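Notebook B, p. 112. Complex prediction, attempt 2.
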Amino acid sequence: MEENAFYVALSLLVNLDASLYQIVVLSLQVSLLAVLIAAFLGFPLGAAVALWQFPGRGGVVVALNALMGLPPVVAGLGVYLLLSRAGPLGELGLLFTPSAMVIAQVILVLPILAALSRQKVEELLGEYREQFVSLGMSRARMMPTLLWDARFALLTVLLAGFGRASAEVGAVMMVGGNIDGVTRVMTTAIVLETSKGALPLALGLGIVLLTLVMVINATAYILSETAKRRMG
Amino acid sequence: MTSLNVPVNNPIELSAPPSLQFESVEFNPFGHRLFGPCSFKLDGPGPTLVMGPNGAGKSLMLRLAHGLLTPTEGAVSWSGASAPRQAMVFQTPILLRRSALANLRHALAVNNVPRKLRTELALEALARFGLSSCADTPARVLSGGEKQRLALARAWSLSPAVLFLDEPTSALDPAAIKAVELAVQEFHKQGTRVVMTTHDLHQARRLAGDVLFLSEGKVQEHTPADMFFRAPVSRQAQAYLNGELVA
């Protein structure tokens, strides 16, 4: 019975295991902060690409779409090189800290948020354009209106970004280092426990991670569906 | 009507509506001529009803006049130094995904109306169009007639000197049509230049001061309404009024 993964997961949760609690909180902190920063940068970026015509716009769209599939280890390697002692930002001493993990996840999530919000905003702009021009709105003035009116679609985009951030292991492993009590998050803990052969614990952690992601998604889904139904 | 002592809603009722002139206007994107060449002047009291068969260029004419499209050749000009304040009501109202009140507040905001005046002006416009009870209703769940009235209320709140309407009643029931027509007459009484397209001959008879008849992207005639319906000059208009198929 003690070897059952579900039992392990349950007992970890019920006993409010301190180290598990710390891992879960850090995982959430890193991924939520990364998604927040990426949204702050990515939504206006996506909207700008949707609104403005400029030379090389097609290239930007393709690049954003392609970077949605950026392998986490490549992002991790890039941030590692940037933050390592000999790197350009080495003096900041950020390598193997949660900050480095946030930076790496921002790089992973930003293209998803920018590319998908570009698509959503462009769709909405097609619908609104004549009214906007009729009202004499500049492109810069259209941006906040479009981002607000696309809010339900963008919430789903945000979730896609959060999913990517919370599920990836390569980048946080490389730049965080999976240091116990400092940079250990759920995914890196699962990798570690698996390699140690502690499969029930690894599975238990996996179940906790899955449950967390499900709860967050379900909440957001219910919120947005209710709001959507109300707003028509 | 109640009048509010704020600059934006202070009507232009005493001055004549601005006149609109098309000088050899053509619209031919990709070398394919869709409109013109056309020259005419709208300087009568109006309302001007733009009529003509499908594909005659009525909607294009409104969009060229309003500035949604830029003429390929020729020029659209207004009396006065600069283009007057304008609004347009579309066949399918384009409403934001917000409450009716927020839709009006947004339009006022982009027209630089001070924040503290917006709600008051918006509520006044909603009341005028019988939408007070819908203020907090999301605009996109309103009925078709309510949506069109909201679009009219939005236009009203901006106090336009010129109002364009592109078949605003084509999808509405008789009661809603009546509400729109009353609103159009109200705009006209306030001194707004009203330019509207329609396919409904009865509606045109009820509203028109003058009729601009288009066919094949060109103006076939521009005559006072009573003359147009009594004795149209152009062969195309005669055929159109007789219910014949015209291109």
